[in-house]
C-alpha cells in the first residue's frame, strides 16, 4: 500500500527506529533552511520583478529598440531632371550611375570605438571624416535613418565595403545617380551646380520635402528650378541582421521615388558656343537674346568654372584655385556685375529727350569744343566734334551734346526713364538666382548716401551713363531690345519648357512677359534706331561693324573707372529694319577693362552676329574683322601720306610739277 | 516486499520529477526554436533539438541509475571523488579545448564535456561528507584549514581556467553548505567579510578607473598595490599584536577583534591577488559591463544590451513560439546556450518567461523540502548544496540576460542546449532523489 502513500508525510515510524536524530527535527537546521528558502525566493523575486519591468512596463521602449535593431530607412534618391537646350535636342546636364556610402548612425559604434573607426574609414576609403562626424551628430535625432557620407565612390572601394560589411557597423552603400555637366565650362554660369544640402538650407526647406541627404541646386538653373528638377525622394525599409547584412526590403506605399522633370532652355547651343569661343581670355560678359520674346539664346561670362568639381568630394586644390582666382570665375558678370553703362546709356537719354519733343533730333545743334565747363568743373569729351545735332552726337558719342541735353531735360526725367521705363535699378527678373539690381541714383539717394546735394555736374555725369549709375549687362541688353523691338522688350528668360521625364509630355511652357514699354511713338524710336545704325555705319563702331554684311545697329560704351582701364561696352541688334521681328537678335558684349567700346567690344559682338547670320566660325569672323580694320588703317595712312604730299609740296621739283599741273588744268 | 526495488522505485518525488521533465522538454522546444536561422530570407533549422531530446532521454536514465546507488556509499569515498575533481580540473587546464579565451572543455571527439559542471556536483558530495564527518570538530583550526583546502583548491583551479561563472556558483554553494552544516557563526561572518572585500575592492577600482579619466586621491592610493599590501600587513600586525596581548587574558571580545582584523587582512590580500593576478582583463570588463553596459556597448556590453532588448521586446504575450526576430536575425549572441532565456522571454513574453521562473522557483523549493525531509545530516547537506547550486545557476543565468547579474558562461539548467550540462543537472537531481528515496531506509 506504500504505492499510494506518496512522500508528503514527514514523520514515519521508521525514523524513530533508525535511532538517529533526523536533521529536520533540529530547530536550528530548520531555521537555516528557511533562511536559505527566503534567500532563494528573494533572488527569484528580483528576477520576476525585473522581468515585469522589462516586459510589461518598458515594453514599448524595448520594442522600438528592437525595431531599430533590424530596420533602417533607406532614402532612395529620385531621378533628378536633366537639362536640355536647342528645344530639347541637346542634353547638357545628365545623370550617370554611381555609388555612395551611407551610415545608419544607430548602428555606428559609440566612443571610444567611434573615433577609431572614423579614422580607419578616412584611411581606407579616403572618406571626409568631418562629413561623417557631422552626419553622426545629426543622427542623434533620427538614428535609424541613413545619411550619405561619401559620394561617387570608386567601384573597387564599394567591392571592398561589400566584402567587409561586418567590420564597418552602420555603414552600407547604395546606388545614387551622379550629376554630370558636359562641357561644364561653357554652361556653368547658366546651369550652376548641385551640392549636398547645408543644415541652414535644410532648416529653411525641410517643409518642401528636402531631407538631409538631399542634393540641392546652389546656383544657376539648378537652383532656380530645383523644385521642378529634383522630383521626390522615395524611401524603403530594410531589414538587417546583426552583421549589417540586408535580409529583406520593403517598399512602403507612397515610398516610391517620383522622378523630377526635365528642363528645356531657350539657349541655342551653336550661339552659346560662338559666344564661349569669342569670350575666351577676356574677362567680361556677353548675352544674346531674341528681341521679340526675351528668350536668351546665349549667356556667358568669362572666366567660368567647371561645375563638375562640386559633384562628389570637392578637391580642395581645384576649389582653392577657383576661389582664389582674382578674375572671380564664380562671378556671373552678366547678371551680377554692376558697371557704369557709359555711352550705351545715351539711348535712354535720347529717348527721354525725344519723348516730349524737348529736343529735335536733327535741328537742335550744339557745339562740341572738346568739353564743357559746368560750374567749377570741366567736363571733357572724347573728341572735338564741332557743331552736331543729336543724330551725329549719338553716332560719334559726343559727350558735350549729351551734357547739354541732360541739363536741358533735367535729371529727374532721365532717372524716371531709366528706372521706370527701361527698368534700370530693378531686377530684370531673369530666371537665375542672385541677380543684382544695379543702381539709378536719385537726388534723395545722393543726399542720403553722400550727404551732398545734387548738382548739374551729377546730371551731366548721369546723362553720359557715368557717375553713380550702375547697370548690369542684362539690363543694358533689355534697353537695346526695347529699341530693337519698337518700344517693347520682354522679360529675359532661360526656361523654354518643362518636360516630364517619364512620358516626355510638356508640362509647362514659358510665356513672354512685357518688361519694358516705352511711351514713345514709333517714329521717334525709329530715329534712335537710325542713330544706332549710324553708329555702325560711320560712328564709333564703324571700323568694327560697319563693313559687315550683317546690318547691325548698336551703341558703344567706354566706361571710365578708377581701378584700371575703361570697360568696353557694345550693345547692338541685327538685322536693322528687319521685316520679320522674330529674326531680330540683340547682343550685348561687355569686356572688363577692355578699353574703347568700339575697339574691344564691338568686334566681338559683330563676330557673334556674323556667326549667327552667316554661319561662319566666330574666331574666323573676328580675325577677318581685325584684318579689315588693319588694312583700312594702312589704306588710310597711305591716303593720309598722299594727301600730305599733295597739300604740302616739299621739294622744288614737286613745286614745279604742281605749278605745271595747275597750269594745265586751267 | 519481494521486489527489492519496490519501495525505492516509487519514492521519487513526483512533483520534482514533473518539474524536471517539464523543464527538459521546454529545453528541447527552445533548442528547436533557437536553431532557426534566417539566412537570405530562407529559414534553416538545424536538427539540434533531436540531439537535445536524445540527451534528455539518456540523462533521465542516468538520473535513475544514480538514484539507485546509496549516497552514503558514494560519499564514503569522498577522497577519491575529490581526487577525481582535482584531476579533472587539472586536466582541463592543461589539455582543455579553448573556447572564448578560456580552457573549459574536454574534447572527446563526438562530445565535448565541461568538467567544471560535473565537478560542482561531486564537490557537493565531498564537502557534505567532510562537514558531516567532522561535525564535532568544526571549531578546530585543523578542520578549518582542511576545509579551506578542500574548498579553496577547486576554486583556485576554476579561476585558472578561468571560469568566473562557475566560481560565482561555487562560492555561494559552499557558503550555504557551511552555513547549514553548523559552522561557527563567527567564522561564517568572517568568511563573508573576506569574500566581500576580495571581490568588491577590485571591481570598484576597475569601475572607477574606467569611468573617471582622472581618478581621485583615494582611488589612486588604493589602486597602488603597495598601499593595499601595506594596509593588509598593518591589519595583520594589529591582529597579531592583539592576539599576543590576549594570549594571557583570554578576553573573548579582544579575541574577536583580533580574528576580524586577521580576516580583513586576508581579504585585502585576496583582493590584491584578484586585482593584479587572478582576474583576467576580459573578466573584469564583463563584470564592468554588468555594472554599466552602456560603457562598453560594442564589446561585452553589447550582449547585455541586446539581451535586454530581446527580452523587453517580447512584451506581455511574446511574439509567439519560434517567431522571435531578435534571436533569429542574429542580434543575440550565443542564443541557444547562455542566452536561451532571452529567446524564451522574446517568444513567450512575460507570461511565459514568468511561468518558467515560477516553475524554477517551485523546483528549488521542492528541493528544499527534500533537504528538510532528509534522513541524516549528510543527505541534508547534499540536498542543500544541490539546491543552492541550481538556484545560483538559475539566478546568474537569467539575471545576466535581464541585467541583474554579470555576463558569465553559465548554462541555464535543463534549458540551455548542450549534452554535458543537461547530464550533470540530471545527475544532481539523481543524487537528490537518492537522498529523498532513502529517508525511510535505515541501512
**Spatial order of the strands in the main sheet of chain A?**
7-3-2-12-20-21
Indicate the mean pLDDT of chain A: 85
Provide the succession of SSEs of chain B: HHEEHHHEEEHHHHHHHHHHHHH
Backbone CA Rg of chain B: 23 Å
Measured between the Cα atoms of the first and last residue of chain A, the distance is 176 Å
Give the SSE map:
The complex is a heterodimer of chains A (666) and B (443).
Chain A (H helix, E strand, L loop, with lengths): L12 H6 L8 H31 L1 H12 E6 L6 E3 L4 E7 L2 E5 L9 H13 L3 H10 L8 E4 L4 H9 L7 E5 L2 E4 L2 H8 L2 E3 L2 H7 L9 E3 L2 H5 L1 H5 L3 E7 L5 E5 L11 E4 L3 H11 L4 E7 L5 E7 L13 H8 L22 H10 L10 E3 L2 E4 L2 E4 L5 E3 L1 H7 L2 H11 L1 H11 L21 H7 L6 H8 L9 H12 L3 E3 L4 E5 L6 E4 L4 E4 L4 H16 L4 H4 L7 E7 L7 E8 L10 E7 L5 H17 L4 H30 L4 H14 L1
Parallel strand pairs in A: 2-12
Antiparallel strand pairs in A: 1-10, 2-3, 3-7, 4-5, 4-6, 8-9, 10-11, 12-20, 13-14, 13-25, 15-18, 16-17, 19-22, 20-21, 23-24, 24-25
Chain B lengths: L5 H4 L4 H21 L1 E4 L2 E4 L2 H21 L2 H6 L1 H18 L1 E3 L2 E6 L4 E2 L1 H19 L7 H20 L3 H17 L4 H27 L5 H7 L1 H25 L2 H27 L2 H11 L8 H15 L10 H4 L11 H34 L3 H26 L16 H19 L6
Antiparallel strand pairs in B: 1-2, 3-4, 4-5
Helix pairs in contact in B: 2-3, 2-16, 3-18, 5-6, 5-7, 6-7, 6-8, 6-17, 6-18, 7-8, 8-17, 9-12, 11-12, 14-16, 16-17, 16-18, 17-18
Write up what this structure looks like.
Chain A has about 675 residues and is of the alpha+beta class. Chain A has 24 helices and 25 strands. In chain A, about 45% of the residues are buried. Residues about 1-20 of chain A have low confidence and may be disordered. By secondary structure, chain B is mainly alpha-helical. Chain B contains 18 helices and five strands. Chain B has helices at about 5-10, 15-35, 50-70, 70-75, 80-95, 115-135, 140-160, 165-180, 185-210, 215-225, 225-250, 250-280, 280-290, 300-315, 325-330, 340-375, 375-400, 420-435, and strands at about 35-40, 40-45, 95-100, 100-105, 110-115. In chain B, the strands form two sheets. Chain B has a three-stranded antiparallel β-sheet, sandwiched between helices. In chain B, strands 1-2 form a two-stranded antiparallel ribbon. In chain B, strand 4 (about 100-105) and strand 5 form a beta hairpin. In chain B, helix 2 runs antiparallel to helix 16 (about 340-375) and helix 3 runs parallel beside helix 18 (about 420-435). The longest helix of chain B is centred in the last third of the chain and has 34 residues, at about 340-375. Chain B is globular. The interface between A and B is large, with 57 and 69 residues.
